[in-house]
Design a protein that fits this description.
single chain, about 180 residues, alpha+beta, Alpha-Beta Plaits, 2 domains, four-stranded antiparallel beta sheet, 10 helices, globular, binds cytidine-5'-diphosphate, binds magnesium ion, phosphoprotein, NDK-like_dom
């Protein structure tokens, strides 16, 4: 079935910068339907559990920062003390908890044709500095992993979006009861 549901979170920087309406309207204009929405201040425990703690996730997150360093010709060991992607990923997860609990967030479930893939396309790649114009991350930020690491924080990239149909269903169940989601 191509009709899917996906989870989007407007992160604390999106809320602080007053971009909630602007960002949500992009999803609506693309034809996706909002079927659930709430604003909360997440706890560290919630964020810790929401993002995976698998070696696979650590490796993937760590590799993104190591790639940014490699492109700049910077030795990650001199900046963050290690070049092991899994260890780097664990540090990123700790900073991510700080970021995601630093202010209120808005959590939405969007529904529509190939919603998971379409939302990822509208959001753009993880690092705003390479996110193309027209994407949310590309249009509203120019942050990058190396600058973020320099300032001992994660990349401020405004939006979270599920990256697969299976993850989307897990993430939706994490934040919403089934009776809070409309059809
Ligand atoms: O959000 P997305 O799916 O694009 O990326 P992710 O790999 O699932 O990482 C989750 C979040 O951690 C990102 O959106 C960034 O805020 C942060 N992150 C980072 O700051 N630096 C990295 N090298 C990887 C992730
Ligand atoms: Mg992700």
């Amino acid at each position: 079935m191509p009709i899917e549901r996906t989870l989007v979170i407007l992160k604390p920087d999106a809320v602080q910068r007053g971009l909630v309406g602007e960002i949500i309207s992009r999803f609506e204009k693309a034809g996706l339907k909002i079927v659930a929405m709430k604003m909360i201040k997440a706890t560290p425990e919630q964020i810790e559990k929401f993002y995976p703690s698998s070696e696979e996730w650590y490796r993937s997150a760590g590799s993104k920062l190591l790639k940014a360093y490699q492109e700049l010709g910077i030795d990650p060991r001199s900046k963050i003390g290690t070049d092991d992607p899994v260890l780097v990923g664990k540090k990123i997860k700790e900073s991510l908890v700080k970021y995601m609990t630093s202010g209120p967030i808005v959590i939405l479930v969007l529904k529509g044709n190939r919603a998971v893939e379409v939302v990822r396309k509208l959001v753009g790649p993880t690092s705003p500095h390479i996110a193309p114009p027209g994407t949310i991350r590309g249009d509203y930020s120019c942050d990058s992993p190396d600058l973020a690491a320099e300032e001992d924080r994660v990349v401020y990239n405004l939006v979270h979006a599920s990256d697969s149909v299976a993850e989307a269903e897990r993430e939706i169940r994490f934040w919403f009861r089934e009776d809070e989601i409309l059809d």
